[in-house]
Amino acid sequence: AAHKFVIVFCVSLELLQTEPTVLVFFSYLGTFSMVTPFGIGLGMVFSGDDLTVAVLQGLAGGTILYVVMFEVLQREKEKEVSGIFQLLGIVLGFSAMMVLELLAHHDHCHKGKDDISQNTTSIPGMT
Predict the structure, then answer these.
(1) DSSP 63
(2) How far apart are the C-alpha atoms of 89 and 56, rounded to whole Å?
(3) What is residue 2's DSSP assignment?
């Protein structure tokens, strides 16, 4: 949850660049702050239905891809850096995340219906 502080800081800076009124600024931040609890609530309601969970995960993944492709990468393309270096950065970043995913062992412990599931991820040599 600590990453939310960084996100709120960045969103606040982006909002302040548009010079909104105080009411608009705080209404946007209020809406932004309510999205996570709303998403957690939806996840709790639909956690038993596999199809709904799959659809919601697909929407979340699609949203991340959209933001990366049309917001983040577009801003990076506007910088005065060689296109080959930008491509190299994207490929290296993707490769690093893929290696981490392949090395991480993700285990789920499902004991009983009333027990709390424990999610653990470990990277060999890092524990």
Answers:
(1) H
(2) 30
(3) T
The pTM is what?
Answer: 0.49
**Dihedral sign of CA atoms 33, 44, 1, 90 in order:** negative
Question: In a structure prediction context, what are the per-residue pLDDT tens digits for the chain, which is 127 residues long?
Answer: 677 788 888 888 888 999 999 999 999 999 988 988 888 888 788 777 788 888 888 888 888 888 877 777 777 778 888 888 888 888 898 899 889 888 886 665 555 555 444 555 555 555 5
Q: Residue 7 in contact with residue 24, Cβ under 8 Å? A: no
Cβ 43 vs Cβ 60: under 8 Å:
no
Q: Tokens 């060689």 appear where?
A: 82
Give the pair of three-digit tokens for residue 2.
């600590």
For the chain, the straight-line distance linking the first and the last C-alpha, in angstroms and rounded, comes to 22
